[in-house]
From TrEMBL, chain A:
It holds the Pfam family Rnf-Nqr. GO terms for biological process: sodium ion transport. One of its GO terms (molecular function) is oxidoreductase activity, acting on NAD(P)H, quinone or similar compound as acceptor. InterPro entries: NqrD, NqrDE/RnfAE. It comes from the Bacteria. Composed of six subunits; NqrA, NqrB, NqrC, NqrD, NqrE and NqrF. It catalyses: a ubiquinone + n Na(+)(in) + NADH + H(+) = a ubiquinol + n Na(+)(out) + NAD(+). It comes from Lutibacter oricola. GO terms for cellular component: endomembrane system; plasma membrane. It is a multi-pass membrane protein. This is Na(+)-translocating NADH-quinone reductase subunit D. The gene is nqrD. Keywords: Cell inner membrane, Cell membrane, Ion transport, Membrane, NAD, Sodium, Sodium transport, Translocase, Transmembrane, Transmembrane helix, Transport, Ubiquinone. It is an enzyme of class 7 (translocase).
UniProtKB/TrEMBL annotation, chain B:
Pfam families: Rnf-Nqr (PF02508). NQR complex catalyzes the reduction of ubiquinone-1 to ubiquinol by two successive reactions, coupled with the transport of Na(+) ions from the cytoplasm to the periplasm. NqrA to NqrE are probably involved in the second step, the conversion of ubisemiquinone to ubiquinol. The chain crosses the membrane at residues 6-30, 37-58, 78-103, 110-133, 145-166, 178-199. It is a multi-pass membrane protein. This is Na(+)-translocating NADH-quinone reductase subunit E. GO terms for biological process: respiratory electron transport chain; sodium ion transport. It catalyses: a ubiquinone + n Na(+)(in) + NADH + H(+) = a ubiquinol + n Na(+)(out) + NAD(+).
Length: 215, 236
């Protein structure tokens, strides 16, 4: 690791598993559940959060000494809102269909607790470079979970991945559908997103028993 | 009738937590005890009742395409809707701060019970989500916007109250280790959401699927727009 010292690298790798923003810090759940019925939407959402959190962390960290602590929440919200407007306008310009699918959830990045949580917990106390790494690390951790959920929900729910029919054609009965396989449409509905996250948490904590909570 | 329908629809069919997953973070974080859950839920209803109508006024008279026409004809072509995120969140953050100051001044006992939750609310997705849904569903009047704010707040309150009660009970059960805490809460919420799905046919007679409402909603808005356009054309 020439570019990153060991400590810096830890800032990126930690949130990927043992300090994951979704499954352990319990931040940013709303969007993780609402837009993961398709893999493509989860990827776009992850990129949007990566952009907003990476840049936002740097901006807040640069301003950390001049923000009066009483109004810091408003300042933070304005910074995020500005970044989110940029994301929203870019999406509307280049991926209009997708921005319709994401509907209000792009706007809700503003109140995505991951962003405020990292601002409060990290960017207000650390320099810009470290904050940037922390932002990238946490949004990658967020992205991992989003992509896992999106992958399973799209695969089991509509038999496609990124829109490609990987399991064959359900109407012409090719691929696995020839053996009588049916799409599980329930996976596309809201409740299954919650249960999928529950199962991911289960698997993760089973593998790393240190993470188990007290009852 | 319109009011009643919107009221029940926002509480049960489009429940903030179970249908749109808004406000999940505080829903999971503050639902360990019923008493704190009630405090937060009340604060959410209160703030939503103020911010949704306020943002409706902002949206209708400042942000919408052509909304500035009341200033004079030459302003009719302005479309400031790209500013809506920043306006909404600024309103919410300011209102939360104001409410906090006012409550602290006039009702210290209410402040003591709500106080610690008010700052949390500024970043509760349910509040901003309420305003954004109000915008995207094109709610027609300020009265309906108020109704929508209150009833979505009540829906959220019900959800957090229910999960807090369940979590208080589940402390005495033998949950498998890795599922304890967060995991089981997610799964219970999932099961509750399945339950709430059954309200889907309550008001629409089963015509509209509540679950696919995100995409369906966009379509219906477009349809409504098309219809309106057609009518305009016919009139012309």
């Amino acid at each position: 690791m020439g570019l990153l010292s060991k400590k810096d690298a830890k800032l990126i790798t930690d949130p990927l598993a043992d300090n994951n923003p979704i499954t352990l810090q319990v931040l940013g759940i709303c969007s993780a559940l609402a837009i993961t019925a398709e893999l493509k939407a989860s990827i776009v959402m992850s990129v949007a959060v990566l952009f907003v959190l990476g840049l936002g962390n740097v901006v807040i960290s640069l301003m950390r000494n001049i923000i009066p602590s009483k109004i810091r929440i408003i300042v933070q919200l304005i910074v995020v809102a500005t970044l989110v407007i940029i994301v929203d306008l870019v999406l509307k310009a280049f991926a209009y269909e997708l921005s319709k699918t994401l509907s209000v959830f792009v706007g809700l990045i503003i109140t995505n607790c991951i962003i405020m949580g990292r601002f409060e917990a990290f960017a207000l106390a650390n320099g810009p470079w470290k904050s940037f790494l922390d932002g990238i690390g946490n949004s990658l951790g967020y992205a991992v979970i989003l992509i896992i959920i999106g992958f399973f929900r799209e695969l089991l729910g509509s038999g496609t991945l990124l829109g490609f029919k990987v399991l064959g054609d359900p109407i012409e009965k090719t691929g696995v559908y020839a053996f009588g396989y049916e799409n599980n449409g329930f996976m596309l509905l809201a409740p299954m997103a919650l249960i999928t996250v529950g199962i991911i948490i289960w698997v993760q904590r089973y593998k790393n028993q240190d993470l188990i909570e007290e009852n | 009738m319109e009011h009643l329908e919107l009221f029940f629809k926002s509480i049960f069919v489009d429940n903030m937590v179970f249908a749109t997953f808004l406000g999940m973070c505080s829903y999971l974080a503050v639902s360990k005890k019923v008493s704190t859950a009630v405090g937060l839920g009340a604060a959410v209803i209160f703030v939503m009742a103020i911010t949704v109508p306020l943002n409706w006024l902002l949206d209708t008279y400042i942000l919408k395409d052509g909304a500035l026409v009341w200033l004079g004809e030459e302003y009719a072509s302005y479309d400031l809707s790209f500013l809506s995120f920043i306006m909404f969140i600024a309103t919410i953050a300011t209102m939360v701060q104001l409410v906090e100051i006012i409550v602290e001044k006039f009702s210290p006992s209410l402040y003591n019970s709500l106080g610690i939750f008010l700052p949390l609310i500024a970043v509760n997705c349910a509040i901003l989500g309420g305003s954004l849904f109000m915008q995207s569903r094109e709610i027609q009047s300020v009265g309906l916007a108020f109704n929508y704010g209150v009833s979505s707040g009540i829906g959220w309150f019900l959800a957090i109250l229910a999960i807090a009660a369940i979590r208080e009970k589940i402390r005495y059960s033998n949950v498998p280790g890795p599922l304890r805490g967060l995991g089981i809460t997610f799964i219970i919420t999932g099961l509750m959401a399945i339950g709430f799905m059954s309200f889907g046919g309550m008001l629409t007679g089963g015509e509209e699927e509540a679950v696919e409402e995100k995409t369906a909603q966009v379509e219906t808005i477009e349809e409504a727009k098309n219809l309106a356009n057609n009518e305009l054309e016919i009139k012309e």
